[in-house]
Design goal:
The complex is a heterodimer of chains A (555) and B (346). By secondary structure, chain A is of the alpha/beta class. Chain A contains 16 helices and 17 strands. Chain B has 18 helices and no strands. The mean pLDDT of chain B is 91.
Chain lengths: 555, 346
């Protein structure tokens, strides 16, 4: 831990952080629930495809769904041994509350690996990078900071690029969530080992671990674990939401800005969450695919807030039970934190790879700064600019809001709507209590739909234009052919006339040759007539047969 | 188990329009007290009447517009408008003039445009502009400033004057031109500035210069608002600096014909306007650079109108002029978004 020049990103807010509630107890293994529900879509990109069927017996760590090989996707493994009882639609942990395809696994309690454990690479330093990348891909690792972007894709993109800085995200800026905090305290050595694997693979000039200063124990543990590492540095950053946003953390640590619409790699930076790095360690050094993670169960709606090591697909109700059950205050169930998470109606929904927190909370706590929220009436925007001061992207939230209200999505886009990360800082500070983020989500959805329709229309127009073009081309070609034919015929006639004139001139006896020519012509006509008569006979025979060359083209 | 549903963010800060307006009102108290000390009950009557008319007319308009009356009265914006408007009126002005001004402020400038948040022009300044044009004589009758104990009118007398009940004072004897007024007419009649200063009680004896004291008191309230982050620094700073710049340049050029910068900074509505009126968020520019331009523009217009225009003070007109430019200023001064190179496609 050294003092290092830090930068500030614009804006940011200080909501109540509520970290102590869940970061006091050591994390525990949550246990194996009787039934796991494993969604096929738990990462950004294409859904994985099930390779087991109902009735199959599976081992722990067995690949039960493979990544869609057409696009960005990730494998899914059985978190424990048991029997596949169904592959069916279940409600997903998603704000829409819609169902999606899931593998339902009835555990047998044996937690039997069979021979599904992958061979550990004890000596990864002497292993081909491509092999390690394949291991990361095979293990179904995705970004565990929330976005769930397949890690292999992210890492492979950085292999052929110069990476100056590897940034490890331990900021954990979202209130209530402490799973990264506990992970860093308890498994710092493994995280450092995971970082070293990444360093070996992409060879960055430096590696910075950013941790907010409200986690002194984690900072200490991580600093200790990398004491002997020359190229890894723990950097304490000020606590401000959303410092854990990728672009924000990069700005804080390096002063660099990720170009709009671009990737951190464009400026030579690769970012990884601490939990993701831990999973890389597990996959490479232990041969364990991503089947579990640390997850915070917290809030005043739960008896004993704590962090748990949770199997992928564990129902939330099971976790609530493990944390001592609900209190009377369990009014809301929030997946993620209170700034960017989403409310779920039902606790039978499973947790997935990207789930970092299940927050059970009462409205009294959520509304502690503003007791009437969100039932109080929304007032008009008074353009006070507090949202502008809070925006970590330096957007103009109130201008966006006006344009979206007027359904002027074009103007909203020109005010850089698509840069919005939906962190909620603007809604948080708004004195008129306008749900600004909802407006942005709505507008983004509308714009997406509009562009899709436009794309469809564009393609239809393209097809139509090509059809027209083809018709015109065919017509032109026919006419050219006809013209060429005509020209050839005329040439022939002219040539024949010329030849005649020439022979006549040469012989000097015009009348004789003329008589000869007439005779010859008469003979030719006769022969032709005969031939035609014969052909006519033939044709009458053939007319019963259908002709192949339909005259359809001659319109 | 079933849970309730709502959307993120689930947290909301303690900010509210009402608390913003309340803090503005609190910040107005020092200046208001200073003015009351020097001008007597008339100042308080103006405030009470203005606020009463403003709230009543706002309620009436909301009723007609079928809007939730209590919700919108609870935002306290009508009280702020009424109070600010009252502070721009001379004491003991007849009640019905107050009503006319407030009618234009609340009904015409605010509610007809859609109420809170939708008015392109500063409502209090619209009301003031209407009055200064329509009733220039009455709007110029500023009492001689004395200490509160030496006021020529007590509570009852003041009340009778305001309501026109058999009480018509000899205005010439009890009023005195404001410093800006004195300078304006003095320069017009060919006096030079030093002579004007010598003749004006306010200007020759800074201790009795009520305008200076109330200006400083409003500035103190404004600085408190800055500290509480209710207003941004850009508008007051740009306004005061641009006014200071022009007054210094011209005063140095010709001290005999152009009033001193101190007079411009600490007279009339400069401080009240810089911290409380130009900073009205609804009608002001919102971007950081835009606020600087907006504030500086107001400062420039104040100087131009005060020196070469036909009114001694110019806060209302300057603010209204710059209000018109706000949409354009905001569009061309969008801040650079993280990761973007340029600000806006021109």
């Amino acid at each position: 831990m050294t003092s290092r020049k830090l930068w500030r990103f614009h804006g940011g807010v200080h909501p109540p952080f509520h970290k102590e509630e869940s970061n006091q107890l050591a994390s525990e293994f949550a246990g194996i629930p009787a039934q796991l529900v494993i969604p096929m879509q738990q990462h950004i990109g294409e859904a994985a495809e099930a390779v087991v069927k109902a009735g199959d017996k599976v081992y722990k760590g067995q690949k039960i769904a493979v990544a869609d090989h057409h696009g960005i996707s990730a494998n899914i493994h059985a978190p424990t041994s048991g029997k596949i009882s169904a592959i069916e639609e279940r409600v997903l942990p998603h704000p829409s509350g819609l169902p999606g395809l899931c593998i339902v696994l009835d555990s047998d309690g044996k937690d039997d690996w069979g021979d599904c454990k992958l061979t550990p690479y004890s000596d990864y330093q002497n292993t081909e990078v491509s092999e390690l990348l394949q291991r990361i891909r095979e293990s179904g690792i995705v970004g565990l900071g929330g976005a769930a972007f397949p890690t292999a894709v992210k890492v492979s993109g950085s292999l052929n690029k110069a990476v100056s800085t590897l940034i490890i995200n331990g900021a954990e800026c979202e209130p209530y969530i402490t799973c990264d905090d506990r992970l860093m305290r308890e498994r710092s050595a493994e995280i450092i080992e995971g970082i070293k694997i990444l360093q070996y693979m992409i060879d960055p000039q430096e590696c910075l671990i950013g941790i907010e200063d409200n986690k002194p124990e984690a900072i200490e543990a991580m600093s200790k674990a990398c004491e002997t590492e020359e190229n890894i540095e723990v950097v304490t950053i000020p606590t401000i939401y959303p410092s854990g946003g990728e672009k924000q953390l990069i700005k804080i640590l390096t002063g660099k800005e990720v170009p709009a619409g671009g990737l951190p790699l464009d400026i030579g930076i690769l970012g990884q969450n601490v939990a993701t790095v831990y999973s890389i360690y597990q996959a490479v050094v232990k041969g364990i695919p991503l089947i579990s993670r640390l997850l915070t169960v917290t809030g005043n709606g739960i008896q004993r807030p704590q962090n748990f090591e949770v199997l992928n697909g564990t129902p939330i109700s099971y976790l609530a039970e493990r944390a001592g059950g609900y209190t009377k205050m369990a009014e809301y169930l929030i997946m993620g934190g209170p700034m960017m998470g989403f409310a779920l109606r039902d606790d039978h929904i499973p947790v997935v790879k990207a789930s970092n927190c299940t927050l059970f909370v009462s409205s009294t706590v959520l509304n502690e700064s503003n007791s009437a929220y969100p039932d109080q009436p929304t007032l008009p925007c008074i353009r006070c600019g507090k949202c502008m001061d809070a925006c970590p992207l330096n957007l103009l939230p109130q201008q966006l809001y006006w344009h979206i209200r007027a359904r002027d999505f074009e103007r909203a886009e020109s005010h850089n709507l698509k840069d919005c990360i939906e962190c909620g800082a603007c809604s948080y500070v708004c004195p008129s209590h306008i749900p600004l983020v909802n407006y942005y989500r709505f507008a983004k959805g509308e714009i997406r739909e509009q562009t899709e329709t436009q794309e469809k229309a564009r393609r239809a127009r393209q097809r139509h234009e090509f059809l027209e073009f083809r018709k015109a081309r065919e017509k032109r070609e026919r006419e050219e052919k006809r013209a060429a034919h005509k020209a050839a015929l005329q040439k022939k006639k002219q040539a024949a006339a010329k030849a005649r004139a020439a022979t006549n001139g040469a012989a000097g006896d015009a009348s004789d040759s003329k008589a000869d020519a007439i005779k010859a012509a008469m003979q030719r006509v006769k022969a032709k007539k005969q031939a035609r008569a014969q052909q006519a006979k033939k044709q009458t025979k053939e007319q019963t047969k259908p002709t192949k060359d339909a005259p359809g083209i001659n319109k | 188990m079933q849970f309730k549903i709502r959307t993120s963010p689930f947290f909301n800060s303690s900010n509210s329009v009402r608390s913003i307006m309340l803090q503005v009102l609190l910040a107005l108290i020092p200046g208001t007290l200073v003015m009351t000390y020097f001008f007597g009950w008339g100042i308080l009557f103006n405030i009470v009447l203005s606020v009463f008319f403003a709230v009543s007319l706002e309620a009436l308009a909301l009723l007609i517009r079928k809007r939730p009356v209590l919700v919108f009265l609870g935002d306290f914006s009508a009280i702020v408008t009424g109070w600010l408007f009252a502070l721009s009126l001379p004491p003991l002005i007849p009640w019905w003039i107050v009503l006319v001004g407030i009618f234009f402020a609340i009904i015409i400038a605010k509610q007809l445009y859609g109420g809170l948040g939708y008015n392109p022009f500063n409502p209090a300044m619209v009301g003031f502009a209407v009055l200064i044009i329509s009733f220039p004589l009455e709007m110029g009758l500023w009492l001689k400033a004395t200490s509160f104990a030496e006021q020529s009118f007590g509570f009852i007398d003041s009340l009778r004057i305001v309501f026109g009940a058999n009480m018509s004072p000899d205005w010439d004897a009890i009023t005195m031109p404001t410093p800006l007024d004195a300078v304006k007419t003095g320069l017009l009649t060919g006096m030079d500035y030093t002579e004007i200063v010598r003749k004006s009680r306010y200007l020759s004896d800074s201790f009795s210069n009520t305008w200076m004291w109330s200006g400083l008191a409003f500035a103190a309230g404004g600085i408190w608002l800055l500290y509480k982050k209710i207003i941004h620094w850009q508008i007051p700073v740009a306004l005061l600096l641009s006014l200071l710049f022009f007054s210094v340049v011209f005063h140095l050029y010709s001290p005999q014909h152009y009033a001193s910068p101190v007079l411009h900074m600490l007279s009339g509505a400069t401080m009240l306007g810089a911290f409380f009126i130009a900073t009205d968020p609804v009608s002001a520019s919102t971007t950081p650079l835009g606020k600087l331009i907006y504030g500086a523009g107001i400062g420039v217009f104040i100087y131009i109108i005060r020196v070469w225009g036909s009114y001694p003070d110019a806060m209302a007109f300057s603010v209204l002029i710059m209000n018109m430019a706000v949409p354009m200023i905001d569009y061309y001064t969008q801040p650079r978004v993280l990761g973007h190179k340029r600000k806006v496609d021109l």
